[in-house]
Amino acid sequence: MNSLVLASLLTEPVGVSHYLVVGAVLFVCGVVCMATKRNALGILMGIELVLNGANLNFIAFGSPYLREASQTLGLDGQLMSLFVIVLAAAEAAVALAIALNFYNSFSTIDVDRADQLKG
Amino acid sequence: MDVVLPKLLLVAWLMPLASFAVISIAYSVPQFLGVKVRYATQKYAAYLAIGAIVGGFVLSCIGLFGYWLPAHSLHAASHAEGESEGAGEHALATPQPIGKNSVRLVAFDAEERLEDHSAASGIQHAEGSRAEHNNGPPPSMTGDWYVLGIFGSLRLTIGYYIDTLTVVMFAMVTLIASCVHIYAFGYMHDELHDYTDHEVKLADGHHLHRPGRFHRFFQYLSLFSFSMLGICISGNLAMTFVFWELVGICSYFLIGFYIERHSASTAANKAFIVNRVGDFGMLIGLMAIWTTMGTFNFGDMPGENGATQAGIFSQLHQAENNYKIAPTDGMIAFEGRNRIAEAVRNAGTTEPAAMQAAAATEVARLRADEPAKWGHWVLFIAGVGIFCGCVGKSAQFPLHVWLPDAMEGPTPVSALVHSATMVAAGVFLVGRVYPLFSAEALLVIAVVGCITLFIAATIAVTQMDIKRVLAYSTVSQLGFMMLALGLGGWLAGLFHLITHAFFKSLMFLCSGSVIHAVHSNDMRQMGGLRKKMPVTAYTMLVGCLAIAGVGVPFLAGFSGFHSKDAIVEQAMSHWHHNARSGVSWLLFVVPVFSAALTAFYMFRLWYMTFAGEPRDHHRYDHAHESPRVMTGPLVLLSVFAVCAGWGLPAFMPGPLANFSIPNLLEQARPVGTLISKPGVYLSGLLIADEHIAHEPEMFRAIKMPAGIAAISAALLGIWLATEVYLWRRLSAEKLGNALRPLYQLSWHKWWFDELYDLVFVRPTHAVSGFIAAMLDRGLIDGIIHTLAWLFRGFAVMVSVLGDRLVIDNSVDGFAEKTWNFGLSLRSLQTGRLRQYVMFLVVATVVLFLVAGFWKLALAG
To answer: Is the domain covering A14-110 a CATH 1.10.287.3510 domain?
Structure first.
């Protein structure tokens, strides 16, 4: 059945499902990046990918061109993605500041070395 | 008038109470709650109290001159003015029907008096002898304001009995209280800032430092005035007793005003406890009266169904008996109860009406017994019982010991206590319930008064504390009053009460002024103060002359001359009538001797304080005349001390005609006192009618020797004091050494305090100490300790079993489980970020699997 779904994606015109597939790929890339990288900057990049994957979903659900007007989130979707972008910017600023301080203290940005808060 | 006057006096009476209440709520309650009362505002408390008492004085004067005297005009006293005039004075009172508003007026106005005059004269001429004619009840108004409670036939009310005595006492008490209030405003100014009491040493060696209590002094003064006015206006004995106790508690507060001083607090306790002893006797008297008369009312009151409920006075003095005193049926029935029970049994009937008739017949038969004795014993007990209360309050032997100690209070209080309020209450009550006393009871009063006046006068001679001399002088003068009352001199006794109130309050305020100036009570540190404080010195001299009784014989003199003369005359009259008894001369000689002592110690006080050279130059240099607010009352009181005995002539307009204190009192003469009272048990005893002493034919036998004895005693005393303390031709030390035993007796106050300490205080301490050790500590404490031990064991058991085993274990166990769970969760938090992400991913996948399984397998 899964193979059937993938096959129909390739044949059908571009719709919400295609965006969702791209978003899912982005999301999984981000998660894998977060799970494998020891470099704090790499992890940050993974986070950005995860957030953008989510953003893509919101935009897709909000678009009036992909679905009937009554079935979309409308502007709410775009607004939500805007929130996420702002959040990502703020988070990046804070995370970079932490990374910088961490580097100043330990001369490295290997997150495995940051284990002093463990219980 | 019968509506307005009671209301007027009610307002005058309640104003000090209102002042007390306002000061309590506005000052004392906040202070008690810890709020600091500012000294600047405490002055307003004094203004309020002064305003209340001065207002009371104004209202009393309006009542006296505006309402009472226009309705009951005064007549010149019959002294030495002949038969017919005397008869007019003793006109029979005609009881009038009961009026509206529960006010009964046993009154006779001017026209009626004239009619009575002629009628009475007619009777007299017909009978040919004045002695057969007795006086009826004085004009009076009675009524109730408020019923406190009704218990069976006992009705407790707040009522009034207003006669001339009440109105005069109101004017006198409020006048003196006003003077004392105003004076205290200056005297108590120390209390207007934080006060350091130099007579109290604390454990750390410092003197006591406390906030001033200016407002509280005036609060108590107001309550004191209110209580005394309550006694004066009281319409029944129960109400009198209530205010009697109120006066006692007020004196307790004021004597103990410097409560931190040990001497002051013990003096307050002493005053209170000694008064309780007297009040116990008074309670017995009250019980006797209630049991045998069934009422506490002085005057007649409207009863049920328009009938009149006879008061105490009219039950004892009935018109058909020529107002002579006779025991009531209740008294005879009480004493003859066995005879009456026998008579009822012999009547052989069970019908209530017939039994009552038999009892009444037996009572009448007992009453007719010759010689009459039934009922007199209860009458005697009732009289002596009430007098016991007066012994305590008026500091008579043997309960006089509290009064000198009461000097621990501030001097204005001493002035008030010693003149117008506390001690006056006792004499006033004897005067008020005078118709209650049988001849034997009166003799008891006279003897007690005589002993008191002699003991106190001898003690006063050697005392060095200026206030103590005055205190013993008060005790002695109260003895004079009681003596006069007991010898039948009702007018003399109460006249002396009023004149004494003026000059004794004057002298106390003067002594306060001196103490204020030299900061010492000891006369050995005074002397020569005449030059420094002339107003005080000369007003004091007026007081001394008044109390010594200086005057021109048979003409006029200082106020004390008139009243003391009347007392000595009555004593002479008693001797004259009881010459056979062999000891009755003592009741004349002792007072005259004491009058000489009075003059001696008063002038000794004056010379030691004001004359001669200063003994203590340091104190002398700092002495100064007191401020006007203190000397003003002195001058006012000294005017009264001079002329309180004088009278206005008959041609004065309106209420002022014949105005004089004796004439006012003559109008209030109690029922049945114008006929000599013979003794029942002491057959030779005769309490002489007071007017006999003024009869022209008795001039040589009574008035002349008495007058000469009184004035020569006074002059002798003054001369001796001058000889010893001014001219110093006789040395006080040599006199004291020559009369060593007498001097010791006097200096140690006849060892009364030591005697009471030995006889009453120590045995009481010993017995109570024994009881405390045996009963309290041994038995009761033992039981309580055992119980405590048992309960303690029980509690320990409960604590071990219930608390520790069950509750502690469950609570501790729960806490331990939570703790361990938290510890196990710890290992999850590794600190590795990538591991956390893996957790997230795995958890998400698991969630999806669970959700999918849920949908496929279960929801299907």
So the answer is: yes
